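A sample follows:
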Amino acid sequence: MIRAENLFFSYTGSPPYVLRGLNLEIHRGEYVSVVGENGCGKSTLMKLILRFLKPTSGSIEAHAGRIGYVPQRSDFSNSGFPITVAEMLNSYRRLLKVKDRGAAARCLERVGMTAFSRALMGTLSGGQTQKVLIARALIGNPDLLILDEPSTGVDIGSQREIYSFLKTINRKNGITVVSVEHNLEAAVANSTLIYHLTGGRGHLCSPRQYAGEFMRKNRVEG
C-alpha cells in the first residue's frame, strides 16, 4: 500500500537531509508504528505519505482509496473557536463531499463520543479531543489511517481506549494503520510491525524483535 524508494528529503532542498536513501514497503492490512528519537524525521515521513511535502529525490507512493489523518492534538486545538463537535465533523464531511448526512454521527458513535456531539471542541479533555479527531478521520471510510502521536496529552484510561479501538479497526475492519509513536509500550503491544527510524533511514521489524533490541540497548546504556 505504501512504498518509498531511495527517498531523500530536506526542507531546504539540499544537504543535510532529514531522510536519506530511505526504502520502505507497507502492505495493506498492517498496523505499523513509526518510532525513533525526536527530530529523526517521523512526522516528516508521514507528511510525505500524505503529499503535504514532496521528496527532494526518490519516490514515495500511497495506494489508498482514501486516507484518514489524525494530526498531533496541538495541531488542531483552539479553545477560543466556538464550534461544536457535530459542527466540526459535518463541516469536514461536506469538505470531503460525502453526501451521507449520517456519516459524522456514526463515526462519532464508533469512538464512543455521541454524548458530546453538542459540546464545544474547546471544552473537551485531551482524550475526548483525540477520539473526535479519530472520528473525523474515519468519515468517508478510509482504507489507510495515519496518526501522529495519538497518545500525546491523553490520560491513561483514554489511551487504552484509543489503542484498543485502533487495534480493532485494523484487525476486524482491515484498515491499514500507520502511527508515529513515542509511546513504545503501546507500539509493541498493538502493532503488527515496527518501523525504527534513525540517521535518516529505517528498518521494519516485528514488535518482539524491537522490544528485544530496545531492552538490550537500555542494558548497555544503563
Summary: The radius of gyration is 18 Å. Residues 93 and 100 are 8 Å apart (CA to CA). Helices lie at 42-49, 73-76, 85-95, 103-110, 126-138, 156-171, 184-190, 207-221. The chain has a mean pLDDT of 91.
